[in-house]
Every structure is written in C-alpha cells, then in structure tokens.
Amino acid sequence: MTGRADRTNDTPGDPGGTGGPGASGGPGDQGGTGRRARRKATFARWQVSFDRWKAVASRYALLPLRLFLGVTFVYAALDKLTDSAFFAAEGSGSIGETMRAVRDSSAIPALVDLALKNPAGFGYAIAFGELAVGIGTLLGLYARVAALGGVLISLSLWLTVSWQVSPYYLGNDLAYLMAWLPLLLAGASELSADRFLADRRRRIR
Which residue, among 130, 133, 132, 143, has the nearest Cα to 63 in the 3D structure? Predict the structure, then answer.
C-alpha cells in the first residue's frame, strides 16, 4: 500500500514530485527567460543603431542648409551677371530703378543714396559678392568668412530692398539672414575644404 501511494504522487512529467512544467526552474520558466533575453538583446541592437544614426545626423545636420544657400547665392549671382539691364542706372529691372523705388521706405536711406551714386558698381559688388559667398559655401572653403559675407549681403538687402515688406516674415532677405547665422557659428565641419585642410595640417605635424 505504501508503495502504491508513493507512486500516485509521482505523476508523469513531474520527476521527483517537484510539480508541473510551469514550476520554478522547469522548462517553461527557462523559455520565458529566454524570450525576455532575446527581446532585450534586440532592443539593445536597435538602440545602438539609433545612437549611431543620431550621431551621423548631428554631424551632417547643416549640410542641407549649406547646399541650399550655396546654390541659391551662385544662382542669384549668375542671374544678375547675365542680365545686362540689371546694372543700368535706370530702366525697368535695373538696380538704379530698384534703389530709387525703395529709398524712402528703407531703414537706412543713406545706404541707398550711396548705392545710387554708382548703381552699376553697387550691382556688380552685390553680384560678385553673392558668387564668392556661394562658391565658398558649397566648397566649404573659409566657410565662416563666406557665411559672414552672406550675413552682410542679406542684412544690407533687408535694410534697404525688403524693409518695407509687411508683415516682416514675407521678406525673404530676413529669412536668408537668419539662415546664414548657424553656418557663421558652426562653419563647415563635414565634406568641406576647411575640414580637408585641417586634417592635412594635423598629419604634417
């Protein structure tokens, strides 16, 4: 009788009378632990990939802005240089006509008067300034100097040509002025001639 009672408690799948498959230390518990471990490992891999992507994105964050401003200023310069009417002292589409139209509504009328003393010279100064700024920005060569040039050109156009635009956010020169400031502060650290020259100087040392 004793032997049969002992065998009754020893149910199949429960060797040693330790309980069913879900008991602590059994195969079910090990399977749950394994799934949790796999989930943690997958999450860790995703986290590493995200951190790597975030670091790359931070390094190249200003590159789209740099390309946009560089291309835009080169285009604006070529548009002026290929338009003979732009450099005339008077006439439709001329720099002289534009300056006279905004003279009384500009923030600094004296600056407009200075431009009107030699409209063609002022027009060429703006055009070649935009070309130099655009090329320097695209190449990343003396990027902060180029950005400073962009700031000064945009500031002068905002205070003269765009000053009368209301509301202010419709004037594009103010937007360009704000867009140049990050490049003035940060420079061109990636995919730039400045970076290439800096790395070369470090290797020579």
Answer: 143
Please, which pLDDT band fits residue 32 given cuts at 50, 70 and 90?
A: confident
User: pLDDT tens digits for 175-188?
Assistant: 999 999 999 999 98
Type of residue at 176: Y
Residues 6+ apart with CB under 8 A from 97: 90, 91
Q: What is the DSSP string of 59-122?
A: HTTTHHHHHHHHHHHHHHHHHHHT-GGGGSSSSTT-HHHHHHHHTTTSS-HHHHHHHHHSHHHH
Q: What is the pLDDT of residue 98?
A: 93
What is the distance, to the nearest Å, from the Cα of residue 91 to the centroid of all Cα atoms in its chain? 40
Dist. CA 36–CA 85, nearest whole Å: 73
Q: Is-contact 50 108, C-beta < 8 A?
A: no
Task: For residue 182, give Cα distances in angstroms to 23, 69, 124.
Answer: 62, 12, 27
| pLDDT of 31 | 67
Report the alpha-carbon distance of residue 194 to residue 176 in Å, rounded.
23
- Contacting residues for 149 by C-beta, under 8 A, at least 6 apart: 129, 132, 133, 136
With 0-12 / 13-18 / 19 or more C-beta atoms within 10 angstroms meaning exposed / middle / buried, residue 147 is: buried
